[in-house]
């Protein structure tokens, strides 16, 4: 697939976080549809809650049966955010407002093709007149059980990634913004019209035509492109800096070389600065105290491992080249 963009699309591009998308992707992660080594501790910790959902709520299984790789997935169950600051409740309201006729059409398309054989109970749910509400209820249950308890930390890393991505697009253009989004994306420069190539099965060419692109980072998900009406043109991509996302390292994990050199908590702060962050973002991300994070940043800065830059009213910390080398896996 090819997405044509122009310089005018830079100003029209937007950035948003989707709590509902994280809830759906968290289910897929637990179901084994995706796998990320960095999130294995989180999967282990939340596995009992996921298994309880599967036992008690058949609609969760019906939802998972719709989600597949390499084929069409019904858009109404995971619509892209509209670029406004919607919370989970606002996004869920959009799902619940889906007309039944639209849901039926998307489900029929979703269930077409080889290797699509949902269980009988799932087909009964798809055929029910309240299918939209039942699938929305499954998403809400996943949010409450799996994502909501960790949402402050999740939001911190997602918002930090958005600031980084927006800065790259404005300062260096499309090539820099797309370069490290996903291995399946490639930037092809071309004068007034450049192209984002997506390695998928869609042979079509789509033009943003001044509408801009919506960037949506994800922790639990993978690359998704939205190019069909009524949704905005959007790319969902894996956020950077997820390894230290859900709190300090597991106390049962053996110390590695960096832990032994600078201490576990200080090492966690250094690793978390894979992207620049403020002190408050690090507190939310790592679950450490404000004073503790401040002390660690002072020591790391004096050692030449991090530097600080003022951006408006906030001070953001970033790793130096020496800090990058020390924190490298």
Automatic annotation (TrEMBL):
Q: Which UniProt keywords apply?
A: DNA-binding, Transcription, Transcription regulation
What's a Gene Ontology MF term here?
Answer: DNA-binding transcription factor activity
The transmembrane residues are none
Q: Which Pfam families match?
A: HTH_20
Ranges for domain HTH arsR-type come to 256-327
Source organism, top-level taxon: Bacteria
Query: Which residues, by range, are in coiled-coil regions?
Result: none
Q: Would the keyword Transcription regulation be found if you checked this record's keyword annotation?
A: yes
Write down the InterPro entries for this protein, in alphabetical order: ArsR-like_HTH, HTH_ArsR_DNA-bd_dom, Metal_resp_trans_reg, WH-like_DNA-bd_sf, WH_DNA-bd_sf
Tell me which Gene3D superfamilies the record gives: Winged helix-like DNA-binding domain superfamily/Winged helix DNA-binding domain
Q: Which PANTHER family match?
A: ARSENICAL RESISTANCE OPERON REPRESSOR ARSR-RELATED, HTH-TYPE TRANSCRIPTIONAL REPRESSOR CZRA
- The identity of this protein, by name, is ArsR family transcriptional regulator
Specify the species: Micromonospora radicis
